[in-house]
Amino acid sequence: MQLRSPSRSATPRIEELIARRDLFAVFQPIIDFDDGAILGYEGLIRGPAGTPLETPFALFSQALAEGCAIALEQAAARACIEAFAKLDYDGKLFLNFSAGAMRQLAEARDDTLALLRHRGVDPQRLVIELTEQSSIPDVGSFLPVISTLRAAGAQFALDDYGTANASMNLWVRLQPDIVKIDRFFIHDIASDPLKFEAVRAMQHFANASGAQLVAEGIENEADLIVVRDMGINCGQGYFFGRPHAHPARKLSDDARDALRANHIAVFPETTRAVSSASPSGGMASAKMLVHAPALPRHATNNDVLELFNRLPDLHAVAVVENNQPVALINRRSFMDRYALPYHRELFGKRPCLQFANASPVIIEKSMTVEQMAKLLASDDQRYLADGFVITENGQYAGLGTGEKLVRAVTEVRIEAARYANPLTFLPGNIPISSHIARLLGNDAAFHACYVDLNHFKPFNDQYGYWQGDEVLKFAAAVLAEVCDPTRDFLGHVGGDDFMILFQSDDWQERVLRAIHAFNEGAQRFYAPADRLAGGIHGEDRRGNPSFFAFVTMAIGCVRVEPSSGPSLYNSEEIASVAAVAKRRAKREANGFVLIDADESLALLRGQAEAAHAHID
Fold it and tell me: What one-character-per-residue DSSP string does 91-143 give?
């Protein structure tokens, strides 16, 4: 009988791999964005190639099952240190450890230092990363571990921040030298406004705490440019290099060119409608809240009279029970009734609910602006005369009036429209000005293009606002289609005015494509008879009968060249010159004009100086 040798495909035990030294180190570069240099390398471990234990996930899952995870971490660290020493690369070596492995590393500090010295690796080149899987029940007892490692010369990093156990609590208490942002937040950050805001919050805290940020998971140029322009200085990811046993000693030409790209990032804008944002509702409530005393349910009409006489500006008084509103008494209605003969004598000592509105309009302080707007449009208009009660979590907070409600909703919506247009959800005037300022501050070459629609007002008058809004949304869709979202910023100034800040090299082709697409598509918004006639009959701004051709698009563009020193312009001047270009474009048959910023600004400034001198 032939004896068969044991199958080599059987999964070996982790202890066997460690004993046979079958663990292999690979390294991924970490890049300094300022000069494109490789700051260091993260050491990662791999099992035998082609086996079920090749990946680190499989390795550590098996180690956990066998109860030897810390032994695997220690063996992995030794393998990475030995391989890194043989490579003889410059820069730091980043190593991953769980909290338990870090404790043992600190306890065996002398052995670790001896290993590093033996391999010729300076301990000051070591960065110890606390992995995100680590939970630390007693953070206070862990602080001496970090102190020991720092005393040996190593730096301490918090890995994969934002997931699992890598929390703000640990950041505050452990005070890491380096924080590595988890790849979840970096992947697609160029198009995800919530990820952008989350990373920006991390950046603010890093500035306050003195920690250096490293963005993990950078896989494309768009995400890199956003992270770079946010001011984060370091990153790693497949865009710079995959983990390899012999990684590159310097950055590739493509990655270096991306880092040095002249265009600046278009930050993703959070443009949610105001109606869905409860904080805006809170802002409106705060604007209209009138702090006023309330009366208990058992109060008398004489108590109401005394309060109104004491507070002559009080338009109403709420009646509450357990601090919850149950009724509202309007001042004018109460005083008119009380002025009748003998009413004070007859009703003065009776309960105040006798003359109260037992079903008052109640607005919760957290109510959204949209809910408040629906109240304005409802058939129930009692609040215009009586006012209404404002509550916070069901408890009485104060009063409001119909006038204040209208003003508050209007002000909040106007303010919100400065940030995001409520119709198209495109960025409004403040983000537009902010992006122009960023372009100027970074000496970026760009074209500011002001977009306007010809004959839009007559169309709006003829077909109504609903159809007019559809044309505006179509215009926004056409403009968005021709923009590169990573280079070109599209904003909605208001009405039928839009602004594009182009950094794309083929900007002019994009402009002409937008004009053509809109002019062709806009005709479908007309009735068949008007399409056959080539337009509509209406009145001009002076009330004279006129014929208006189809709505068309006009785009006036301003070329802004980078300056050799401080910017020669500001965002308001660029917007003003773009408006001049737009007015000229509306007179051109093809709807397009290009002007130079220097020449036009000199003319505008001269006109302003002449007007000022005339006033003086």
Answer: SEEEEEE-HHHHHHHHHTHHHHHHHHHHHT--GGGEEEEE-TT---S-HHHHH
Alpha helices in 421-464 (DSSP H): 429-441, 456-463
- Residues near 101 by beta carbon (within 8 Å), at least 6 away in sequence: 70, 73, 74, 77
Query: Cα torsion at 426, 428, 434, 440 (round to 10°)?
Result: 80
Closest Cα partner for 77 from 99, 105, 58? Answer: 105
Summarize pLDDT for 251-292 with one digit per residue, the tens: 999 999 999 998 999 998 754 433 333 445 556 667 778 888
Query: Do residues 541 and 402 touch, judged by C-beta distance below 8 A?
Result: no
Q: What angle do CA 434, 234, 123 make, to 5 degrees?
A: 150
* Residue tagged 């000051």 (tokens): 124
Give residue 228's pLDDT. 96
Contact, 351 vs 280, CB < 8 A? no
Distance of CA 427 to the CA centre of its chain: 12
Query: Residues 159, 132: contact at Cβ < 8 Å?
Result: yes
Q: What is the pLDDT of residue 239?
A: 96
Answer whether CATH 3.10.580.10 is correct for domain 275-412.
yes
- The ranges assigned to domains in the chain are 20-259, 275-412, 424-615
Q: Tell me: the pLDDT tens digits for 49-64?
A: 888 999 999 999 999 9
Helix (H, G, I), strand (E, B) or coil at 178: strand
Contact (Cβ atoms closer than 8 angstroms) between residue 90 and residue 27: no
Residues 6+ apart with CB under 8 A from 594: 447, 508, 557, 558, 559, 581
pLDDT at position 137 is 78
Task: Name the CA radius of gyration of the chain, rounded.
Answer: 34
Read off the tokens for 288.
């209209």
- Burial classification of residue 460, based on how many CB atoms lie within 10 Å of its CB (0-12 exposed, 13-18 middle, 19 or more buried): buried
Amino acid 418: pLDDT = 64
367's enclosing H/E stretch is: none
Helices (H), 368-521: 369-377, 382-386, 402-419, 429-441, 456-463, 465-482, 507-521
Per-residue pLDDT at 163 = 73
Closest CA to 318 of 376, 226, 258, 390: 390
Do the beta carbons of residue 240 and residue 29 sit within 8 Å?
Answer: yes
Cα separation, 183 vs 196, in Å, equals 12
Regions of the chain short of the pLDDT cut 70? 1-10, 133-134, 164-166, 270-285, 369-370, 373-385, 409-418, 564-567, 599-616
Return d(Cα 405, Cα 412) in angstroms, integer: 11
In angstroms, the CA 468 to CA 554 distance is 17
Which architecture does CATH list for 424-615? 2-Layer Sandwich (3.30)
| CA distance linking residue 567 with residue 90, whole number of Å | 39
Q: CB of 493 within 8 A of CB of 576?
A: no
Q: What is the reported pLDDT for 412?
A: 64
Helix, strand, coil content of the chain in percent (nearest 5): 45, 20, 30
Torsion of CA 523, 527, 532, 533, to 10 degrees: -100
State percent of the chain over pLDDT 70: 86
Q: Domain 20-259 - what CATH class? A: alpha beta
pLDDT digits (tens, 9 = 90+) for 457-503: 999 999 998 999 999 999 999 999 999 999 999 999 999 999 999 99
